[in-house]
Design brief:
Layout: E1 5-9, H1 14-25, E2 29-34, H2 37-44, E3 51-55, H3 61-75, E4 80-83, H4 98-126, E5 129-134, H5 147-167, E6 172-179, H6 185-198, H7 202-210, H8 221-233, E7 241-244
Parallel strand pairs: 1-2, 1-4, 2-3, 4-5, 5-6, 6-7
Helix pairs in contact: 1-8, 3-4, 4-5, 6-7
């Protein structure tokens, strides 16, 4: 694996940063992509080995294609793609606007599709590649007040499974990692929203999410990164949605 080229989207913080750090430890050259250049540069400084900062908005097709070209010009084709950029929203179905619905699909489903479509030709030509999409346990179960998010995550797991079937004999694998509630800035936003909606303290709202998982705590970003590393290392793991949720969704 040493010296192979990895690209991680949403890499400036949270799971994306932890994945970049783990891939760097595993010997990969790591390109970090997100919208915030300053945050990316700070994140890249914490990643072992060679890094490349690639500012781009994954929902903008021109910017996404330019980001891939930047990596290719510097290091060659992307060999490991970790699609982590994403976000959530919370509202009842009747309160979900067309704009919110489309925003979830654009970021959590269409952008991963475009990333995979852009990366696969070079992987197939080399007959080696790894794609890991950071999905969610919401890819597998429905929960109240997150219909748009859940629909986008169900869709991306279907995309992963179809892509994995297409490339199964090529030396390329495509998998999803499906975390539960992880200790990330995105979860902090969820905690704040719960506290505001219910009139509880932030600590009480955080406990609500912790109790949803049998282990009684939030998942650590490093625990998710470990499973991403497994998907990269093990060629027999393909087409899977691997839960990292403390046992909340058993499959």
């Amino acid at each position: 694996m040493t010296g192979r080229v990895a690209l991680v989207t949403g890499a400036s913080k949270g799971i994306g940063l932890a994945a970049a750090q783990r891939l760097g430890q595993d010997g990969f050259r790591v390109a970090l992509l997100s919208r915030d250049k300053d945050a990316l540069e700070e994140a890249a400084a914490s990643v072992p080995g060679a890094t490349l900062v690639v500012p781009a908005d994954v929902t903008d097709l021109d910017q996404l294609n330019a980001a891939f070209r930047t990596v290719e010009d510097a290091w060659g084709p992307v060999e490991v793609l970790v699609v982590n950029a994403g976000n959530g929203s919370a509202s009842t179905i009747t309160e979900t606007s067309d704009g919110e619905w489309q925003r979830m699909l654009d970021l959590n489903l269409t952008a991963p599709f475009r990333c995979i479509r852009r990366a696969l030709p070079a992987m197939l030509e080399q007959r080696w590649g790894r794609v890991v999409v950071v999905a969610s346990v919401a890819s597998k179960v429905g929960e109240r007040q997150i219909a748009a998010y859940t629909a986008s995550k169900h869709g991306v797991l279907g995309l992963v499974r179809s892509a994995a079937s297409e490339v199964a004999r090529s030396g390329v694998t495509v998998n999803a990692v499906c975390p539960g509630y992880v200790d990330t800035p995105m979860t902090d936003d969820s905690v704040a929203a719960i506290a505001e909606r219910t009139g509880t303290t932030l600590a009480e709202a955080r406990q609500v999410l912790e109790r949803k998982q049998p282990i009684g705590r939030l998942v650590a970003v490093a625990e998710v990164a470990d499973v991403i590393s497994l998907c990269v290392a093990n060629a027999a793991v393909n087409g899977q949605g691997l839960n990292v949720d403390g046992g909340a969704v058993q499959s």
